[in-house]
Amino acid sequence: SSESGGSGFSLAAAALPERRRPGGGRPRYEVVRELGAEEVRWFYREDRKTWKPFIGYDSLRIELAYRALGPGGPAEPREGEAAAVEPVCVRSGLYEVDVASAESYPVYWNQTEKIPVMRGQWFIDGTWQPLEEEESNLIEQEHLNRFKGQQLQESFDMEVSKPVDGKEAIHSLKLSRNHVDWHSVDEVYLYSDATTSKIARTVTQKLGFSKASSSGTRLHRGYVEEATLEDKPPQTSHIVFVVHGIGQKMDQGRIIKNTAMMRDTARKIEEKYFSNLATHVEFLPVEWRSKLTLDGDTVDSITPDKVRGLRDMLNSSAMDIMYYTSPLYRDELVKGLQQELNRLYTLFCSRNPEFEEKGGKVSIVSHSLGCVITYDIMTGWNPVRLYEQLLQKEEEELEDRWMSYEEQRLLEELYITKQRLREIEERLHGLKASTISKPPVLKFKVENFFCMGSPLAVFLALRGIRPGNSGSQDHILPRTICNRLLNIFHPTDPVAYRLEPLILKHYSNISPVQIHWYNTANPLPYEHMKPSFLNPTKEPTSVTDSESVSTAPSPTTSPVMVRRHYGESITNIGKASILGAASIGKGLGGMLFSRFGRSSTTTEPGKDGAEGDDKKATTVGTPPLPHSSSGFLEPTVELEHRIDFELREGLVESRYWSAVTSHTAYWSSLDIALFLLTFMCKHDQEDSDKSNLDTL
């Protein structure tokens, strides 16, 4: 190669995001010859932004596939045969490159916009951006025609860019809007032939500046870093399926963008905190909504034309919740997500055969309604089961009341008939099972189920799940189905609810665990964090600026802070009306109360509903008694693992504005990226430590 990076190499290298090889620049050849495959660098461009270089491993394999097409690349395939080269798998296996069409496309999801790829041979000094391929090919051809076989200069300044003062061009090439001058074999400059550039060049030359330094751009032949097969991503040992909630009909590509944001933030965290581990976590979007037909266009046809834009937005977003509660479409939504999860897992394993052999793990991150559908798929919950439970309850109530002899006889006859029907169904099911083995609902075991901004708790409460006496996660999600359930939410997210009080009631007065800021120095491990109780001494009617600043945590604090309670931005009048609704019954009003008025509802377990309701009504806007939470300070039962984890509020965050934006603020959060990786890599770290001990 005639050019190894040229002057300005060290400055440009420092700014590059690429991993540097030990030893610095590329090896230099003594004579000019054709570029080696390792000197060429391939690039891709997403969202019309700047060209990004493929890592060495990817670039080298693309270049070898390119050369396999024939001497002229895609334009000139070998005579008598079609250009048929296998697509090259790139970017940790998430994309493929079709060299013939110079395009890249995703493997696991559909994307309408293709990603262009480009072969880089000549590069701009400093930025190391490639010249457009057409110009690059012309310059390369001219360079080889003129200088091939010529000796290169022995001394080469690697420090600072020196202008080629007084040097005349020994060779020149005219391009459409530019021209290239060779001042020596490895001093090549590109000049723009635009009118403004000509004027600038004339003025600067008259002032005594050289032609090259005044308006020329230094070019380098061959990339700053040699491509090697060792420069490859680690093997994926943990895959994360990212499941969207409502609103994907409105913006079909949103989950792909959101997953890309989560993947990028996780990469930053992985490089900063987990680079010493062999673990590599990969995020795959699960787009289950767009393939469903549901009602076709029936809902659209019955939508009035007034305020059409707003109505269409609601139809495309909130309508998914109505579809899910509809017995007609619920199964279609569940089946759509289940099939997509299994399709992605099967495809991933077929392309990564070692994943299962080496004990690769699978986690799921679900958002909003996606949490409820994922939960129902994992547990196999169906409304039919709830209906059967209601029938059974009716039968039990029927047995308890007084019956005449005739009623008793008919009831016994009904029981016998039902028993006989059950036996026939079981026999029939047994015959079917012997011929067709029913596959498991999911083809993989879920290691961690992360819920973000999840309404799952409210769905479970409305299905009749009530707190128990055991602190086990099995009360709502058996460990045999999913090893760990984690519920992440922003304190002002209006869609998110807590899960812990559904397992143990007294946890309604225990603060969720505060998620560490990603830049916290030496954070306390989550399993060592002690519970913080919700027992505010004052009930403010609104949040003042001074209060919000004074109670905000410092980014460097790691222990649990005393959590600001819900509902402090609601006026006492508003709260009183909610409390009034809560006292009507223990249904949705009770849940609303527990959501917004929890700070004043510290009733002891074991008290009956009426007494609790009276107490709620009398404590509105007054400080709680010092002994009001004494029943919770030393609970007899604790959770095996904490489930509710809360993001810390920003220092200058508006409570009202964040209520609007918080439901979608999870994807790009570095705090959440660190949280996810902490739990996923923790298990892998424990496994590796255990295997090391076994070896010893």
TrEMBL record:
* DDHD domain: residues covered: 442-682
* One GO cellular component term noted in the UniProt record for this chain: cytoplasm
Which ranges are annotated Low complexity under compositional bias?
Answer: 546-560
- PROSITE patterns per the record? DDHD (PS51043)
Name the domain of life this protein comes from: Eukaryota
Q: Which InterPro entries match?
A: DDHD_dom (IPR004177), PA-PLA1 (IPR058055)
Q: Where is this region: Disordered?
A: 1-27, 532-560, 597-632
Which molecular function terms from Gene Ontology are attached? metal ion binding; phospholipase activity
Ranges annotated as biased composition (Basic and acidic residues): 17-27, 605-617
Bias-annotated ranges (Polar residues): 534-545
What protein family is recorded? Belongs to the PA-PLA1 family.
Q: What is this protein called?
A: DDHD1 Phospholipase
Which species does this protein come from? Answer: Rhynochetos jubatus (kagu)
Query: Which gene carries the instructions for this protein?
Result: Ddhd1
